[in-house]
Inverse folding.
């Protein structure tokens, strides 16, 4: 009986220690077209490399963007993005938290969050930040394909004519 109790305790303790070492990622994507312009609110408190990688992905996706210093209705931004990231030291410097939020007409439309603050002994927390930032932006910003929209309209028109 005592052995069973002890092994159950060890299993429960192992489960708790593993769950305490979790890394979480959540992405709620947005859809934009090639005509979309995103205003990025520059965060001077975040390492410069974060913004550079964010911009690089937008350029590759051919999404127009501009940097703004603060949220202001006078900026004329329909789409606005904010970002933050933190690094921590644990044997090495690593990105422990990253968050990108995208707003459409002032309302939250999508977000990407990477959170390794509860990473503890999980060695997967030691990531290269640039590929992770790229992954977050690529998964967050989905592009509507103009060709697909044309095909839908075109097939709908054909269907109407056939009736």
């Amino acid at each position: 009986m005592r052995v069973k109790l002890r092994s159950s305790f060890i299993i429960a303790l192992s489960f708790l220690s593993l769950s305490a070492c979790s890394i979480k990622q959540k992405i709620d994507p947005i859809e934009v077209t090639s005509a979309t312009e995103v205003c990025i609110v520059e965060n001077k408190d975040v390492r410069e490399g974060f913004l550079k990688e964010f911009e690089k992905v937008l350029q590759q996706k051919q999404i127009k963007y501009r940097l703004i210093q603060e949220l202001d209705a006078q900026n004329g931004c329909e789409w606005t993005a904010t970002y933050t990231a933190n690094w921590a030291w644990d044997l090495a410097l690593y990105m422990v938290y990253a968050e990108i939020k995208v707003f459409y007409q002032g309302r939250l439309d999508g977000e990407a969050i990477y959170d390794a603050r509860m990473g503890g002994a999980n060695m997967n927390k030691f990531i290269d930040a640039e590929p992770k930032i790229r992954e977050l932006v690529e998964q967050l910003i989905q592009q509507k394909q103009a060709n697909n929209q044309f095909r839908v309209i075109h097939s709908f028109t054909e269907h109407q004519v056939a009736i």
Observations:
- DSSP finds four helices and eight strands in the chain.
- The beta strands are 24-28, 30-32, 37-41, 64-68, 79-89, 93-104, 107-115, 141-143.
- The longest strand covers residues 93-104.
